[in-house]
């Protein structure tokens, strides 16, 4: 593949942008990323005219793919033609809020913001303001945006900033625990329970290779937060309106959080975030409460229209049946390929999310007949159970460099665009086809 124009663009970008990019993950590919010219259905075309099957989908927001249905496009164009924005409320904000409240049972009221990071930042502030407590329990490796309260590593006994610029005094109020470890959560509550404002967790770790929760783990988080008077924040920025359909992952797992954070799909591909939950909690946001939150572009009419029409289209068509079916085909096909070519690797994902984790150990190839057939489900009866990733640390110990330095490039050479590292999720869209799936599975066979 020729990539001369992408190389030239990256050279220019390095002169004017740190690392040549506006988000760090985009520079993960060495020696440089390809630059996209345009999207086309389930594909992207780069600056040199190379075409790829796109399983990144903007890192998740593009449920419908790059070619939006006519109703979605028309709503976006109408709003844009009526003026960029106003600094006053618009009807479409109310329409989208009513749609979310109607379909997500735990959400009684909602506040729209401009990014997933802004949503999680505001949710943490809200939890602290509502409870009068300071500490937040998070999952090690869980990603909740580029904010001071969650850019924290280590463990509950020794939390420390994971980024320069975050004071140690901030990190001391964050208590990281391993995902799927009930004992660790119980220990931090026994020591700090009177000052824990909330537990914040993704329902599925989505930025660490896709780690599925053990059966009962999310229910346990709900129970222990109730026991200690803390709040349960479910971060559905990635899974919201993707896993579990319009009811989101919380409906699929049967758990009811106090607060839910949204992003990505709820804005239809435009910048968005949202914080929803019980009315008595969400009403603590200004102006009805004492927790300050505001934003010039919050509830932007173009974003609200894109999000509303995207979700309406999903509700009225076979979107979830289509993407979940293709996701199942991908994971099932990958399970067969991995069993044959790399039996130590683990296929993960659910609904329209998928990934192969390059785990280093696994059961013997002859014992895989009873394994999970369409992505790891943390099933104790599965022969992979003792080897599949249970938390972020398990994913970190996988062959992450081989994935990035060798495998990703081999897939790119075959016209398949996968997420930029071992950790980021991959997504199916409504625009993808069975032919895209078959082409991708053949590429995996070659690349592995």
Question: What is the element layout, followed by pairings?
Answer:
Layout: H1 4-16, E1 36-40, E2 43-46, E3 51-54, H2 70-81, H3 91-103, E4 109-113, H4 116-131, E5 135-139, E6 152-153, E7 160-161, H5 168-171, E8 174-177, H6 182-192, E9 196-201, H7 217-228, E10 231-235, H8 248-253, E11 259-263, E12 273-277, H9 279-282, H10 301-316, H11 319-341, E13 346-348, E14 353-357, H12 392-396, H13 400-413, E15 416-417, E16 426-427, H14 434-447
Parallel strand pairs: 3-15, 5-8, 5-9, 9-10, 10-11
Antiparallel strand pairs: 1-2, 2-3, 4-12, 6-7, 11-12, 13-14, 14-16
Helix pairs in contact: 2-10, 3-10, 6-7, 11-14, 13-14
Task: Describe the protein in words.
Strands 4-12-11-10-9-5-8 form a seven-stranded mixed beta sheet, sandwiched between helices. Strands 1-2-3-15 form a four-stranded mixed beta sheet. The protein contains 14 helices and 16 strands. The mean pLDDT is 96. The chain folds into two domains: 4-66 and 319-447, Aspartate Aminotransferase, domain 1; 70-316, Type I PLP-dependent aspartate aminotransferase-like (Major domain) (Aspartate Aminotransferase, domain 2, 3-Layer(aba) Sandwich). The two termini are 20 Å apart. The protein has helices spanning 4-16, 70-81, 91-103, 116-131, 168-171, 182-192, 217-228, 248-253, 279-282, 301-316, 319-341, 392-396, 400-413, 434-447, and strands at residues 36-40, 43-46, 51-54, 109-113, 135-139, 152-153, 160-161, 174-177, 196-201, 231-235, 259-263, 273-277, 346-348, 353-357, 416-417, 426-427. It is 36% helix and 14% strand. It is globular and about 55 Å long. It has 448 residues and is of the alpha/beta class.
């Amino acid at each position: 593949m020729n990539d001369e124009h992408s190389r030239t663009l990256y050279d220019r970008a390095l002169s004017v942008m740190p690392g040549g990019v506006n988000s760090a993950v985009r520079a993960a590919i060495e020696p440089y990323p390809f630059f996209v010219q345009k999207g086309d259905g389930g594909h992207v075309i780069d600056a040199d005219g190379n075409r790829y099957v796109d399983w990144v989908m903007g890192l998740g927001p593009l449920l419908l793919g790059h070619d939006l249905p006519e109703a979605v496009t028309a709503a976006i164009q109408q709003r844009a033609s009526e003026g960029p924005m106003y600094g006053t409320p618009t009807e479409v904000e109310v329409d989208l809020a009513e749609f979310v409240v109607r379909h997500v049972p735990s959400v009684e009221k909602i506040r729209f913001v401009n990014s997933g990071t802004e949503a999680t930042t505001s949710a943490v502030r809200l939890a602290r303001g509502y409870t009068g407590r300071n500490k937040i329990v998070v999952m090690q490796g869980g990603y909740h945006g580029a904010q001071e309260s969650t850019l924290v590593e280590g463990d509950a006994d020794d939390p420390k900033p994971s980024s320069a610029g975050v004071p140690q005094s901030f990190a001391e109020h964050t208590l990281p625990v391993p995902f799927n470890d009930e004992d660790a959560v119980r220990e931090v509550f026994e020591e700090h329970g009177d000052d824990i404002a909330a537990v914040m967790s993704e329902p599925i770790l989505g930025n660490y290779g896709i780690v599925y929760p053990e059966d009962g783990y999310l229910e346990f988080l709900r129970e222990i937060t109730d026991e200690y008077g803390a709040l349960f924040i479910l971060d559905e920025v990635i899974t919201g309106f993707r896993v579990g359909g319009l009811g989101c992952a919380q409906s699929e797992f049967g758990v009811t959080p106090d607060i839910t954070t949204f992003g990505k799909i709820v804005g239809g591909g435009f910048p968005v975030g949202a914080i929803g939950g019980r009315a008595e909690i969400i009403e603590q946001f200004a102006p009805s409460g004492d927790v300050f939150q505001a934003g010039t572009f919050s509830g932007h009419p173009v974003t609200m229209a894109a999000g509303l029409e995207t979700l309406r289209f999903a509700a009225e068509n076979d979107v979830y049946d289509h993407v979940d079916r293709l996701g199942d085909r991908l994971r099932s096909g990958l399970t067969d390929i991995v069993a044959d070519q790399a039996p130590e690797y683990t296929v993960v994902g659910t609904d329209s999310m998928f990934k192969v984790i390059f785990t280093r150990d696994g059961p013997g190839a002859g014992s895989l007949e009873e394994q999970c057939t369409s992505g790891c489900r943390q099933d104790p009866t599965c022969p992979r159970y003792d080897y599949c990733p249970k938390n972020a640390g398990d994913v970190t110990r996988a062959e992450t460099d081989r994935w990035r330095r060798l495998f990703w490039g081999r897939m790119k050479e075959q016209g398949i665009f996968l997420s930029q590292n071992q950790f980021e999720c991959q997504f199916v869209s409504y625009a993808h086809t069975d032919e895209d799936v078959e082409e991708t599975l053949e590429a995996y066979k070659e690349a592995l």
